[in-house]
Write a structure and sequence with these properties.
- By secondary structure, chain A is α/β, with parallel strands linked by helices.
- Chain A has a single domain, classed as Response regulator (Rossmann fold).
- Chain A has a five-stranded parallel beta sheet, with helices on both faces.
- In chain A, helix 2 runs parallel beside helix 3.
- Chain A is globular.
- Chain B is α+β, with helices and mostly antiparallel strands.
- Chain B has one domain: CheC-like (Chemotaxis protein chec), CATH 3.40.1550.
- In chain B, helix 1 crosses helix 4.
- Classes of the chains: A alpha/beta, B alpha+beta.
- Chains A and B meet through helix 4 of A and helix 1, helix 4 and strand 5 of B.
């Protein structure tokens, strides 16, 4: 069975490396991207099963990147989880749910919790 | 035309409502920045809308504002007002840059600044929705370095031609450790004050049973 592919999008390189190490240990293939543009450029070719998307990134925020992903018929159905340092209000969460964001993980996160949520969403 | 007064009882109700909304937003802002945030909420005021920018920041010509419309039958707007310097300081913190990294607004920091406005306004509006039992939604935030220009876009009518009064609720945030001050202002069109107060009264009656 082929490995499930997860893309991690975050401008904080140390966090990308950390998440990559955690998820690779669990048997996932991890694709790093350090900004919204890089995420969009890699998406069509690499077709991840899930994206972990940072909310606050320079130039293109996680929300703007997600909007572009949803506008593209080839990428619109990819599962997305948001990573955020910010406690979101209900209206903030509702806005992201409208973009079909499936879950929100607050940074700093518990490694086991991250893995559990990823596995649950991917059904593994 | 004389400026109408807001009766004391109604004024207190509105102030309590606003303080409750501000508490939610303060908690969120403090968590976002991981810093202590002090706030002062003023009593509600009715004033001419074109006086509002002056009251936001009379001495700082570089005032920058972010505003987002409240979408529902009762029209309102949330304005976050600060000096450009302070807004750039917040962008430095959020994008993990050295203090003073951002010298001006740019493609790199504007999306994050707008997102922060969205998050902060989201906390106010969620609190308002919960308090009033309504379903406000927010428009996308607009960033402007010219409050006088922006105020014409608030969709409150011809502000420099007619005397248009608004109800203003204002909180000043002070992030002491960073020497950052900003104001959050909620404006409602005067015509909606009665409706707004009735909504609050009916909510209070419900709570009292």
């Amino acid at each position: 069975m082929s490995k499930k592919k997860i893309m991690i999008v975050d401008d904080e390189e140390s966090l990308v490396e950390l998440v990559k190490a955690i998820l690779e240990r669990e048997g996932f293939e991890v694709i790093p991207a350090y900004n919204g543009d890089e995420c969009l450029n890699k998406l069509e070719k690499l077709k991840p099963d899930l994206i972990l998307m940072d909310m606050m990134m320079p130039k293109m925020t996680g929300k703007e990147t997600t909007k572009k992903i949803r506008e593209n018929p080839k990428t619109k159905d990819i599962k997305i989880i948001f990573l955020t340092v910010v406690r979101l209000s209900e209206i903030g969460k509702d806005g992201l749910k409208k973009l079909n964001v499936l879950d929100f993980i607050t940074k700093p996160f518990d490694n086991a919790d991250l893995v559990n949520r990823v596995k649950k969403l991917l059904g593994v | 035309m004389s400026i109408p007064n807001l009766p004391k009882f109604e004024s207190n109700i509105l102030k309590n409502m606003w303080v409750s909304c501000s508490n939610q937003a303060t908690k969120a802002l403090s968590e976002m920045l991981n810093k202590k945030v002090n706030t002062i909420s003023n009593s509600p005021k009715i004033l001419l809308i074109n006086k509002v920018p002056k009251s936001l920041n009379p001495k700082d010509v570089s005032t920058t504002i972010l505003y987002t419309q409240l979408i529902d039958t009762i029209k309102g707007i949330i304005v976050i007002s600060s000096s450009l310097k302070n807004i750039l300081k917040i962008a430095d913190i959020f994008l993990r840059k050295e203090p003073g990294y951002f010298k001006d607004l740019s493609d790199e920091n504007i999306p994050v600044i707008k997102e922060l406005a969205n998050i902060l306004a989201g906390h106010y509006v969620t609190a308002l929705n919960n308090l009033l039992g309504i379903k406000y939604e927010l428009s996308e935030p607009v960033l402007s370095v010219n409050p006088y220009r922006a105020i014409e876009d608030f969709d409150f009518g011809p502000v420099y031609v007619e005397e248009i009064h608004v109800l203003m609720l204002k909180t000043s945030f002070n992030i002491v450790q960073e020497r950052i001050k900003e104001d959050v202002v909620l404006l409602f069109k005067k015509e909606f004050i009665r409706e707004l107060l009735e909504m609050i009264s009916s909510k209070i009656s419900l709570v009292k049973g």
